[in-house]
């Protein structure tokens, strides 16, 4: 643990860390808004925790975790044991260490969630804490992390598992909101470009990507049926794939209905194709968590420390499989998306608690010129914050819980002697895919059901 934190302590060598956000990244992004730089640094803190969690799962570090006080319950052995469908309590130490590391990052951001409630502008004294004192924030994160590793095992991991389930589900919904908004903005901008330039190239681009996404979705459905279902078994997987395919087909039809097109001229198949592809991705993640070795080729049977869960077919798989790698990449992109972007749609900005700068354009331009001359970021929140400090930190709390469940394959500490994959993970992911489809369907039919409201 000390080695992991020591590797991360290079951040403290940056002399600017005791100052404000404009100083920290002044050489990397001069004349950038103060709000953007601050969110990037907090996101970097989260990614630092993710990096330490990944290191915890490495065999060399995991082998040293036996020295910590919460390793095994009293009377349990820490010697790896090979059993049919069972595993001893000492063979998942990396997963339990990830629980504590992610608890530390979640607790760190939750403190800021509470502390930054109702900050209206950078003139609020708390805004100085939000945008500065980075060295002391880093020390607080390190202190919480060290303390988390000395929490007695007891029921800590079992209770924290349920927090992880809820947090992961909510963060998946946030991903879906951002994806739907991204698809709408993409389609709207390219249609505007096509009208402004009077060029068919933009229409060709929309058609190409729509066809590409639907092609990838059909290929994904085919591969899911081949690898995750078998004749006479795997009925749950067949139902999930078939149902999600049907729902995707339905929302694609609704997206091009004349009534919907009349109410929302920018609605089209591009958005539907993006949602369809993402739904197939979430379905893949769900099926990769099915606790049945006949229906799940990714079922965890081989651990980094050499312990093996012997399956009925005698095969082994590494814990770090393709679904987790892709899920980690999507997590990183989504978290950066939260930190960098404000939406073009007022409803999404209201939901995500983000908006454009409050100052007049002329004043903002003057501040930007002055900051560019000094090689620093400029304060764009003197007249009003551009994002909710509290809600941003709450999103990072959910992100910490989501990555905890992703890295541990939804491991439940109270089930150390059972197969690691559980139906809890399957249902959470499947329900998230259904919620995403319903959310997208609502964006299509809402203008028809509520004609008196402005959905522009």
From TrEMBL:
Q: Where is the signal peptide?
A: 1-26
Where located? Answer: Membrane
Per the similarity annotation, which family is this? Belongs to the TDE1 family.
Q: Does the keyword Repressor apply?
A: no
Record's PANTHER family? SERINE INCORPORATOR (PTHR10383), SERINE INCORPORATOR 2 (PTHR10383:SF22)
| InterPro entries, alphabetized | TDE1/TMS
UniProt organism field: Mustela putorius furo (European domestic ferret)
Gene that encodes the chain: SERINC2
Keyword annotations for this protein? Membrane, Signal, Transmembrane, Transmembrane helix
Pfam families from the entry?
Serinc
Q: Does the keyword Membrane apply?
A: yes
Give the protein's recorded name.
Serine incorporator 2
Q: Which residue ranges does UniProt annotate as crossing the membrane?
A: 36-56, 97-119, 131-153, 159-180, 201-227, 239-257, 269-287, 322-340, 391-411, 426-450
An example Gene Ontology cellular component term from the record? Answer: plasma membrane
């Amino acid at each position: 643990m000390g080695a992991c934190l020591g590797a991360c302590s290079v951040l403290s060598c940056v002399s600017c860390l005791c100052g404000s956000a404009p100083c920290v990244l002044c050489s990397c992004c001069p004349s950038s808004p103060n709000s953007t730089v601050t969110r990037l640094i907090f996101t970097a803190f989260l990614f630092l925790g993710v990096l330490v969690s990944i290191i915890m799962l490495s065999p060399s570090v995991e082998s040293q975790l036996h020295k910590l006080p919460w390793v095994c319950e009293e009377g349990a052995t820490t010697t790896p044991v090979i059993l049919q469908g069972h595993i001893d309590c000492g063979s998942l130490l990396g997963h339990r260490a990830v629980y504590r590391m992610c608890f530390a990052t979640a607790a760190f951001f939750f403190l800021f969630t509470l502390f930054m409630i109702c900050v209206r502008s950078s003139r609020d004294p708390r805004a100085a804490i939000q945008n500065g004192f980075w060295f002391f924030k880093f020390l607080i994160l390190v202190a919480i992390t060290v303390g988390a590793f000395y929490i007695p095992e007891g029921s800590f991991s079992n209770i924290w598992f349920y927090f992880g389930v809820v947090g992961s589900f909510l963060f998946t919904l946030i991903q879906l909101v951002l994806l739907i908004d991204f698809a709408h903005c993409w389609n709207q901008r390219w249609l505007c470009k096509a009208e402004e330039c009077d060029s068919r190239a933009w229409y060709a681009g929309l058609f190409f990507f729509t066809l590409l996404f639907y092609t990838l979705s059909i290929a994904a459905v085919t591969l899911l049926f081949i690898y995750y279902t078998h004749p006479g078994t795997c009925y749950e997987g067949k139902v999930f794939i078939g149902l999600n395919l049907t729902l995707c087909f339905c929302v694609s039809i609704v997206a091009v209905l004349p009534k919907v097109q009349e109410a929302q001229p920018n609605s089209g198949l591009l958005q539907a194709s993006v949602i369809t592809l993402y739904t197939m991705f979430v379905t893949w993640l769900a099926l990769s968590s099915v606790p049945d070795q006949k229906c799940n080729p990714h079922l965890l049977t081989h651990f980094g420390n050499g312990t093996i869960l012997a399956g009925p077919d005698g095969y082994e798989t590494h814990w770090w499989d393709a679904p987790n790698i892709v899920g980690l990449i999507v997590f990183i992109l989504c978290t950066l998306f939260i930190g960098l972007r404000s939406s073009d749609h007022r409803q999404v900005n209201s939901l995500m608690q983000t908006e454009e700068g409050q100052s007049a354009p002329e004043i903002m331009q003057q501040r930007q010129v002055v900051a560019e001359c000094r090689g620093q970021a400029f304060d764009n929140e003197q007249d009003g914050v551009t994002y909710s400090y509290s809600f941003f930190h709450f999103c990072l709390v959910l992100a910490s819980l989501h990555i905890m469940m992703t890295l541990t394959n939804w491991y439940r500490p109270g089930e150390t002697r059972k197969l690691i994959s559980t139906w809890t993970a399957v249902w959470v992911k499947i329900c998230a895919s259904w919620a995403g489809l319903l959310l997208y369907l609502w964006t299509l039919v809402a203008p028809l059901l509520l004609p008196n409201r402005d959905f522009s």
